[in-house]
Write the structure tokens for this entry.
Amino acid sequence: MNFPFRPKLLDTLPGYGRSAFFQDLSAGITVGVLALPLAMAFAIASGMPPAAGIWTAIVAGFLISLLGGSKVQIGGPTGAFIPIVYGIVANLGVADLLIATMMSGVMLLALGAFRLGNMIRFIPRAVVTGFTSGIAVVIFLSQIKDFLGLPIESLPGEFFAKIKALYAALPDLHWQTLAVSLASLAVLIAWNRQAIRVRWMRRLPGPLAVLIIFTTLNALFAQISPLFAQFFPLFAQPITDTIGSRFGGIPQELPDFGLPGLTLETLRELITPALAIAILGAIESLLSARVADTQIDDRHDPNQELMAQGIANIAAPLFGGFAATGAIARTATNIKSGGTTPVAGIIHSLVLLAIVLVLAPLASHIPLATLSAIVVVVALNMGDWHALSPRELARYSNNYRYILLGTFLVTIVFGLTLAVELGMVLASLFFIYRIADLTRIEPIVLPAEENGADTNNDAPRILAWKLSGSLFFGAANKLETLLLAHDNHAGVTILDLDKVISIDTTGLDILQSLHRNLQKRGAALILCSLNKQPNSLIRRSGFSIQIGIKNILPNFTAALERARQVRGGQSEAVASGSAAEQCAAKQNPPA
């Protein structure tokens, strides 16, 4: 099998000039600065140290841009991974998270290498909307602890245990932390709204602006608090937890390179979490790339993108990072800032690296409440709340509503893996039901002389049926109508398959059963108007030989003519049989 590997970067380098570089440089710096608070916030929300988020953005972001299939995709840690990563860390530990991430990278690499990138698009919109909004709720719940300053040492990953722990700690909320959180949230929302109208504010992303403001205020408070502590006991304690107080700051050095320990038992335990990371990473990265295509009038290579995502997720844990994928918000910022090639994404990673090596000590004063407020805004923007409104749901079928709401609720209560599985199963079942419902088997009314209504009742008749839809396992109950339609005087049965788009092996088996039943009664089966797929299956299976090539006709007119010929032969046989019976009766009169 051919495994073409061609990063998008190679397509953009010919003709790449000074002007394009400066555009990418400006966009890369902007996105790199934006990625800093998001990377730290997502890491902390996932139960990881802030440095893990930064190194994920540096290593994975660099590789995704260098090797990816999109011109403008920016990779790194995202909010969507928070529930999965937090659950793995809480239940299995950081070491197993790193192994699960690398396993997911191998899966993504294989998906891309075997050219399966387009299969991700088969996931129904209802499933994507349901689990995306469900993830947003889970992310929001995960931030309540730091947003309110609740004294919970380790928040459980399981939904009901998490709600119980939050409720038990609610009376002990920290009012100073809540004040910082609300203030950070208000400033961030106001900044984002004003940035639409004020040009200079657009140059400084809202998350970075609020981070700078409250980190500065917290640092100033730390300097002056000793002066007032003897008069006001309130100043003797920090206002709120910071990266320095909880994590000891961010190391101002390169992380140690190393492989996590691995055993066969560990591999078995981590297959399901790794699969969840791979599925979510594939969906989010390709969704982000597809959204980007509409903004830059380009077309990404989904298989190359998945291979790059796989390599990035294999490499990031070697530097202490975790799961990464294409980030929709950072990719959109890259486009709005003028980024046109993968060079912008590479620069964004280098900017983050420079910040870590130069400005890491300043991160000690970053309030966790401010980072929590940033993640809360990400969660609020992430959910498709309009799609969950009663008015919007009323526009769609019950099947759509069941899939969307089922996926949404299961994501919140039981996790993403089960939610995607349930959503896909429901979508498949409803699709099967719908296609089966569209399958029709209707009798064709023939002239009286054809069906023998105006002749001797012993003469063989011609029956005809028109089939439409798909003859597959889901419509087996309808196909069985033909088997149950016994008519001892039917000499020929015609099936018009002009409207049948496909037949599977179950449908073929029922046709073969019908043929055998007719044969036992001395009757014949004729097929006509076969489309490409049914015709191919019937011939490949040898069924065409069983019923006879002469009994497969191109149209109904030819099939009816053939049926007359077959019936004529049967009539002669019947007549001969009747004469013989009369002769025998004369020679052997009844006693």
Notes: Residues 574-591 have pLDDT under 50 and may be disordered. The CA atoms of residues 5 and 414 lie 38 Å apart. The chain has two domains: 22-146+159-400, 440-587. The two ends are 82 Å apart (CA to CA).
